[in-house]
Amino acid sequence: MNPIWTIKKILLWTQEYLSNQKVTESPSLDAQILLAHTLNVDKVYLFTHYDKPLSPEETKHYKELIKRRLKGEPIAYIVGFKNWYGLDIKVTTDVLIPRPETETLIDISIAMLQTLDHPKRVYDLFTGSGCIGLAIAKKYPDLEIISVDKSSKALEIARENAAHLNLNHIIFEEKDLSLVESYDELSKKYGKADLVLSNPPYLSMEEWKHISLGIQEYEPYEALVSGELGTELSRTLLDQKEKILDSGFLLMETSLTQLQSLKLDKISQFYWQSVGNLPIGYSLIEDMSYSPRFLCWRTFAEQG
Ligand code: GLN
């Protein structure tokens, strides 16, 4: 006879099982997310219904999800979305799973927009799931947002996200941003923006070999790796920025290794609350754990 699994019992069992298998750093959270997803309830429901028994179908479905997790599949792909900056962002293996660090990019962007006089237009380059443009569109419904990616499959997800979140004013554009012409084309079609945002692929081929297997096997290579060096796409973006940026800011997520390889002139580091004081030119902005993560280019400082 099959054992009766209550919510409490199955959660405790999975936590222990996942901990022993060492596939995840958050066994209890993973178990809760997957069980809530199976039962189509929120996590709070689990704690208020500890003694509720699972039906045999629910148990079977849940165990299938646990098996996928054990193989290293990221939770966000299993449940099909990632809660990011308070938005439920649909994800498939065609797009990168939005990262918590990138949420800081939104906080900085908002601070930047506040320093600008009537900003009109924002580009989100390498938009992937669309998360960056979506978060800005949610906060600033009157801004024109152009979200760009070369992957039509990624753009399909990004469009679905926009529709689902009712952010129907975002423009999606399919362009290969490794090509200089793409920047000319964007400029011609839409004009210059007040803010250019980007979390470009920035790993080198070699770095990719050393990232965790879960990322390697499931997340799109194209969204992670820029090329042999890792700096190719960021370099093109920095070289071409003036074609698509008016007065305002470019803000790009990056990594320490990449910052070193980009060999920019000596640049100062800032905490993001001091965005109003950023100098003209390049500066580095720290993330929540005080490590330099965002590269900023400011065209000119606002008066007053
Ligand atoms: N803009 C998306 C994100 O920040 C995708 C980035 C990418 O594909 N490199 O998650």
CATH architectural grouping of the largest domain? 3-Layer(aba) Sandwich
The radius of gyration computed from the alpha-carbon positions, rounded to a whole number of angstroms, is 21 Å
What is the CATH top level name of the largest domain? Alpha Beta
Q: Compute the number of strand runs.
A: 12
Gist of the model:
With 304 residues, the chain is α/β, with parallel strands linked by helices.
Secondary-structure blueprint:
Layout lengths: L6 H15 L5 H13 L3 H6 L7 H15 L4 H5 L1 E4 L2 E4 L9 H16 L5 E5 L5 H9 L4 E6 L2 H13 L6 E4 L5 H11 L2 E6 L4 E2 H5 L3 H6 L2 H4 E3 L4 H13 E9 L2 H7 L5 E3 L10 E6 L5 E7 L6
Parallel strand pairs: 3-4, 3-6, 4-5, 6-9, 7-8, 10-11
Antiparallel strand pairs: 1-2, 9-12, 11-12
The structure holds glutamine.
Glutamine (GLN) binds next to helix 7.
Task: Report on this structure.
The chain has 304 residues and is α/β, with parallel strands linked by helices. The chain folds into two domains: 7-71, Orthogonal Bundle (Helicase, Ruva Protein, domain 3); 93-299, Vaccinia Virus protein VP39 (Rossmann fold, 3-Layer(aba) Sandwich). 45% of the residues lie in helices and 19% in strands. It contains 14 helices and twelve strands. It has an eight-stranded mixed β-sheet with strand order 5-4-3-6-9-12-11-10, with helices on both faces. A two-stranded antiparallel ribbon has the order 1-2. Helix 2 packs across helix 4 (56-70) and helix 6 (100-115) crosses helix 7. The model has no long low-confidence stretch (mean pLDDT 93). The site of glutamine has 13 residues, from helix 7.
